[in-house]
Design a protein that fits this description.
- With 303 residues, this protein is an alpha+beta fold.
- It folds into four domains: 1-17 and 137-169, no CATH class; 19-133; 173-245, Efflux pump adaptor protein, beta barrel domain (Elongation Factor Tu (Ef-tu), domain 3); 254-301, no CATH class.
- Helix content is 34%, strand content 28%.
- The chain has three helices and 17 strands.
- Strand 7 and strand 8 (205-212) form a beta hairpin.
């Protein structure tokens, strides 16, 4: 349905897992429902034949009723024997029962079809709800950042561990760092972080810790923290990132790394350079800290 880089909307189908038995059952139920709905139409041959029986028996009943009423009037005036009246009465009662039976059959047929239609619709709705679980939909508006499956891959639709697609908003990438257990006590929200991204070698990006998880990953012995950073808009999702957290800020004397050689630097003094030994501290972004040997304001020569 989709490939990496495609824009998708929330709820859009990304993939459809095969469910042949379920699909077959739904098709069978839909076919049966179609037949039932066809029979329920007023002009269907099925209902029309039943209705014609009702109309024919009603016509016979009305005719028998008229004959019986006429004979009863004659019998009351003594113009025909009572035996003849009883024959017409029997004929009338027979046609009345036949009409009522046909009418009941017609109404029962409609009720039965309506009940069957309702039952089939409920079954289709239930199976369709199950079928929905086989559709992989995008949870958000965004872009397909990664695709971990291909057509024909086996997926357990009941498992919560399957990762099929990575969908996100590239303009709102989130940086997640894992902090070793021994340093967790030093980490606080709001601390500055300097990030190195594999996709952009030699560049550094600044960010801020805005969230940290409440407990350690017992397996990895790390704590996950989230960093809000201004990364380039073309930063690939799932890039490898290394971060340096600024735990404490203090003044330091820094010189370019290119100025240091074998623990010494060339200090520029008026018209000449003097090589002086220095005691070095940590390194940071092309600079090295000088603990002893230089003073603030000294000028050094790059080698």
């Amino acid at each position: 349905y989709v490939k990496e880089g495609d824009k998708v909307k929330k709820g859009q189908v990304l993939a459809k897992m095969s469910a042949q038995e379920l699909d077959s059952s739904i098709r069978d139920l839909q076919a049966r429902l179609g037949l039932v709905e066809e029979r329920l139409r007023e002009d269907s041959s099925y209902l029309r034949s039943l209705k014609e029986k009702v109309e024919a028996s009603e016509l016979q009943l009305r005719q028998a009723e008229r004959e019986y009423e006429r004979r009863r009037d004659l019998a009351e005036r003594g113009l025909i024997p009572k035996e003849q009246l009883e024959r017409f009465k029997t004929t009338y009662e027979t046609h009345r029962r036949e009409y009522e039976a046909n009418l009941s059959q017609y109404r029962d047929a409609i009720r039965s079809l309506q009940t069957e239609s309702k039952s089939l619709r409920a079954q289709i709705e239930r199976l369709s709800a199950q079928r929905e679980k086989y559709l992989i939909r995008s949870p958000i508006n965004g872009v397909v950042l990664s695709k971990f499956v291909k057509e024909g891959s086996y997926i357990n639709h009941l498992s919560q561990e399957n990762v099929l697609f990575g969908v996100g908003d590239p303009s709102r990438l989130e940086v997640v760092l894992e902090i070793d257990e021994e340093y967790v006590g030093l980490i606080k929200e709001g601390q500055r972080v300097f990030l190195s991204v594999d996709a952009f070698p030699g560049q550094t990006f600044e960010g801020t810790i805005y969230s940290k998880e409440g407990q350690l990953d017992r397996t990895r012995k790390t704590l996950r923290v989230k960093v809000r950073a201004n990364l380039p808009p073309n930063t690939p999702a799932f890039s490898t990132v290394e971060g340096k957290v600024l735990v404490e800020e203090k003044s330091a004397l820094l010189v370019p790394k290119e100025a240091v050689k074998d623990g010494k630097v060339l200090r520029y003094e008026r018209i000449r350079s003097v090589e002086v030994p220095v005691k070095l501290g940590g390194e940071y972004e092309g600079y090295v800290e000088v603990l002893e040997g230089l003073r603030e304001g000294d000028r050094v020569v790059l080698r």
